[in-house]
Task: inverse folding
C-alpha cells in the first residue's frame, strides 16, 4: 500500500484528502505545518507528498525545496488556489501541480500517474 | 571802373543777379550770404575780378587764389554732405533692418527680411538675390530661397506695385513672407535645385567666398577662370556679388545678388554696404536656426515629460491594479478552500450514498453549485492575473503546441480532432505567454453549444505585415454573429457567470494589451478566431 503524506494547514482539507485517498487505497498521513511534516517523516518512508503551497505563516515552496533536497526520490504534488503558481520557477521543482477543487479526480489521477512512474523507475533500476 | 556784378550792393533786385532763383529771394537783401553762396560762381563777379586784375590791382591775384580755394572747399563740403546723407540713409536702413531681425526668431521671417532688404529700392536695390544655406550635417551649401523678377515684364509689375504702395522694409518683408515666400521658392525652384555645392569643394568660387569670409564681386562671369560655366549659365548674368554669411566664425550661408534686369553696375560702395548688412543677417539666420532646433528639442522634452507623466500614472494605476489583484487573490484563496471542502465532501457523500437515497438530489445540487462557483472563481483569478502581464518574446509554435497539449485530453474525450498548420520562418512574438495560453485554451474548449457534425479545430499561423496571425477555425460550433457578439461582452445578460465568460475575458485581456482579436461566425463553416500577435514591443499598449 502506498503511503501518502498530506500537508495542509486547513483541518477540513486534510480530512477530505485523507478520506478520499484512503478510499483510493492509500495509507494517508496528514500534517498541518512543515514542522509537523518533518516530525512525521522521521523514520518513515513516504511514496508521495501532497503539499499546500500556502501554509499558515510559511511557504509550501520552502518545504518543497527541503523535500526535494532530502527525499529526492519522493514525488511531490503542489496544491494551490492560484493557477499562476504554475509559472513560478520555484514551483517547477514539484513533480505535479493541482489547482484546488472540490472535484479530486485530477488529484487522484496525478497521484496514480506519479506513483506508477516511480514504480516503473524503481523496476528499471532493479 | 564799372562793375558788372552786384557783389558790393546791400540790396538788389531779382534781375541784378542771374544766380538767384525762385525761392532764394532772401538773398536779395543779405549781401554777405549772397556773396558766399552765389558770387563765387557768378560769371559777372569773375568778369569784375578779371577787370580788377587788368587794372593792376595787387589784391586781384590774391582774391582769385582765395576764390579758387573757397570753391574747392565748397565742392568738397558738398561731396561730404552728400556722402553723409547716403550714410545716414544706410545707417537708418540698417537700424530698421536690425530692429526687424532682432525681433524675429522665425527663420522664414528672417530670410524674407534679408532678401527683401537686398532687392527693395529702399534697401540695396539689387534686382535679384538667392540665399544658400550651409547644411553642416550633410556638408553641403544648398540653394534655399530666391527673390526677384524673372523677366522685365514681371520686374515692371513688381516695381510699380512697390512704388504705389510705398511700404517700409518691415511691411515689405511681411508682405513677402505672407504672400510670396512659397511662390518665390517655387518660381526659383529650378535654379535653387542646381545651386548646390559640397562644402568640401574648396576650388568652387562659392566655397572660396565662404571660406575667405569676404564678399567677392564677380565680373565677366562667362569668362571668369574661377566661375564654373554652369554657374554663369544658371545665373545668366555677367556680374554678380557673392556675399558670405558668417556668424561667430561659423559658415551660415551665402547670398548671391545681381542686377539681372537693369544691368546696373555693382559698385565697391554697394559691396561694402552689403558686407555690413551681412553680419546681422548671418547672426539672425543662425539664431533662428538655433531657435528652430531648440523648439524641436523643447517639443522632444515636452513629449518626454508627457510620456514620463503617463508612465507615472501607469505605475500608479499598476500599483492600484496590483493591489486589486492581491485583494482578489486573497479573497479568492479564502473562498477557494471552503468551496473545495463543501464540494469535496458533497461529492464524497454522493459517492457513498445509495442511488435510492432521496437526499442525493440535494447533494447533487451542492456539487453542481460548487462547481459553478469554482468556475467563477477561476475566471476572477484569471482576470486579476491579467492585470499585471509579463511580456517577452516567445515562439508561436511553442505557444500553440502548449495550448493543444494542455487541452488534448479534454478535447479528445469530447471527440474533437485538432491540427496545427505552422507558418514558415515566423519571428518571435512579444506576448504574455501565460495569458495567451489561457486565451488559446479558452477558445479551444469554450462551452458554446455546437450543432455541427465536423468536430475539428484547425489552427494555423502565418506571418503578416504587423506581426503573426493565428487563425483558429472551429468547425464544430455554429452560432449567429449576433449571439457571438453578445458572448464577447463580459457579464452580458445572455449568459451567467462561469458560463461563456472566458471568451469575453479573452477579448478584454487581449485588447487591453493592443492585440487584435476578431471572432467571425461563418454560416456553414463554424467560428473563425483571428489573433494578430505583435512582433515588436511598441505594437502593444
Result:
Amino acid at each position: 500500500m502506498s503511503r501518502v503524506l498530506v500537508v495542509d494547514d486547513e483541518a477540513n482539507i486534510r480530512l477530505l484528502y485523507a478520506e478520499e485517498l484512503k478510499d483510493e487505497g492509500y495509507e494517508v498521513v496528514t500534517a498541518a505545518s512543515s514542522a509537523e511534516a518533518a516530525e512525521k517523516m522521521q523514520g518513515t518512508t513516504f511514496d508521495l507528498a501532497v503539499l499546500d503551497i500556502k501554509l499558515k505563516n510559511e511557504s509550501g515552496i520552502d518545504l518543497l525545496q527541503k523535500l526535494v533536497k532530502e527525499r529526492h526520490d519522493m514525488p511531490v504534488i503542489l496544491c494551490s488556489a492560484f493557477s499562476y503558481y504554475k509559472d513560478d520557477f520555484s514551483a517547477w521543482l514539484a513533480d505535479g501541480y493541482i489547482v484546488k477543487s472540490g472535484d479530486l479526480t485530477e488529484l487522484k489521477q496525478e497521484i496514480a500517474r506519479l506513483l506508477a512512474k516511480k514504480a516503473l523507475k524503481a523496476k528499471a533500476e532493479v | 571802373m564799372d562793375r558788372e556784378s552786384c557783389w558790393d550792393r546791400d540790396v538788389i533786385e531779382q534781375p541784378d543777379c542771374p544766380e538767384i532763383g525762385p525761392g532764394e529771394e532772401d538773398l536779395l537783401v543779405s549781401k554777405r550770404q549772397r556773396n558766399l553762396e552765389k558770387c563765387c560762381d557768378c560769371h559777372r563777379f569773375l568778369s569784375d575780378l578779371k577787370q580788377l586784375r587788368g587794372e593792376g590791382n595787387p589784391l586781384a591775384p590774391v582774391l582769385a587764389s582765395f576764390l579758387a580755394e573757397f570753391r574747392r572747399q565748397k565742392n568738397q563740403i558738398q561731396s561730404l554732405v552728400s556722402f553723409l546723407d547716403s550714410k545716414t540713409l544706410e545707417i537708418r536702413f540698417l537700424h530698421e533692418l536690425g530692429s526687424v531681425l532682432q525681433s524675429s526668431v522665425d527663420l522664414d521671417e528672417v530670410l524674407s527680411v534679408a532678401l527683401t532688404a537686398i532687392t527693395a529700392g529702399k534697401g540695396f536695390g539689387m534686382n535679384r538675390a538667392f540665399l544658400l544655406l550651409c547644411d553642416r550635417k550633410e556638408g553641403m551649401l544648398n540653394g534655399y530661397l530666391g527673390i526677384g523678377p524673372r523677366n522685365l515684364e514681371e520686374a515692371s509689375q513688381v516695381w510699380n506695385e512697390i512704388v504705389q504702395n510705398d511700404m517700409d522694409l518691415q511691411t515689405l518683408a511681411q508682405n513677402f513672407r505672407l504672400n510670396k515666400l512659397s511662390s518665390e521658392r517655387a518660381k526659383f525652384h529650378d535654379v535653387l535645385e542646381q545651386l548646390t555645392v559640397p562644402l568640401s569643394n574648396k576650388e568652387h568660387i562659392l566655397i572660396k567666398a565662404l571660406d575667405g569670409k569676404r564678399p567677392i564681386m564677380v565680373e565677366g562671369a562667362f569668362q571668369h577662370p574661377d566661375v564654373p560655366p554652369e554657374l554663369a549659365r544658371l545665373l545668366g548674368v555677367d556680374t554678380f556679388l557673392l556675399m558670405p554669411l558668417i556668424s561667430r566664425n561659423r559658415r551660415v550661408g551665402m547670398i548671391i545678388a545681381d542686377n539681372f534686369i537693369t544691368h546696373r553696375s555693382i559698385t565697391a560702395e554697394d559691396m561694402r554696404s552689403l558686407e555690413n548688412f551681412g553680419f546681422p543677417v548671418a547672426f539672425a539666420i543662425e539664431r533662428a536656426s538655433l531657435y528652430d532646433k531648440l523648439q524641436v528639442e523643447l517639443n522632444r522634452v515636452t513629449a518626454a515629460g508627457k510620456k514620463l507623466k503617463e508612465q507615472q500614472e501607469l505605475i500608479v494605476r499598476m500599483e492600484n491594479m496590483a493591489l486589486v489583484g492581491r485583494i482578489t487573490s486573497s479573497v479568492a484563496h479564502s473562498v477557494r478552500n471552503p468551496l473545495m471542502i463543501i464540494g469535496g465532501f458533497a461529492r464524497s457523500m454522493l459517492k457513498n450514498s445509495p442511488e435510492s437515497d432521496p437526499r442525493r438530489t440535494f447533494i447533487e445540487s451542492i456539487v453542481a453549485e460548487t462547481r459553478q462557483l469554482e468556475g467563477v472563481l477561476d475566471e476572477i483569478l484569471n482576470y486579476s492575473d491579467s492585470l499585471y502581464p509579463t511580456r517577452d518574446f516567445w515562439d508561436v509554435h511553442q505557444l500553440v503546441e502548449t495550448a493543444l497539449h494542455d487541452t488534448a485530453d479534454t478535447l479528445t474525450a469530447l471527440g474533437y480532432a485538432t491540427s496545427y498548420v505552422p507558418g514558415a520562418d515566423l519571428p518571435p512574438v512579444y506576448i504574455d505567454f501565460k495569458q495567451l495560453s489561457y486565451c488559446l485554451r479558452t477558445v479551444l474548449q469554450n462551452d458554446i453549444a455546437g450543432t455541427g457534425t465536423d468536430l475539428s479545430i484547425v489552427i494555423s499561423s502565418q506571418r503578416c505585415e504587423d506581426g503573426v496571425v493565428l487563425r483558429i477555425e472551429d468547425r464544430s460550433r455554429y452560432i449567429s454573429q449576433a449571439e457571438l457578439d453578445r458572448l464577447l461582452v463580459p457579464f452580458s445578460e445572455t449568459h451567467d457567470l462561469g458560463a461563456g465568460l472566458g471568451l469575453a475575458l479573452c477579448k478584454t485581456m487581449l485588447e487591453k494589451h493592443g492585440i487584435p482579436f476578431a471572432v467571425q461566425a461563418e454560416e456553414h463553416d463554424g467560428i473563425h478566431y483571428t489573433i494578430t500577435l505583435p512582433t515588436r514591443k511598441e505594437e502593444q499598449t
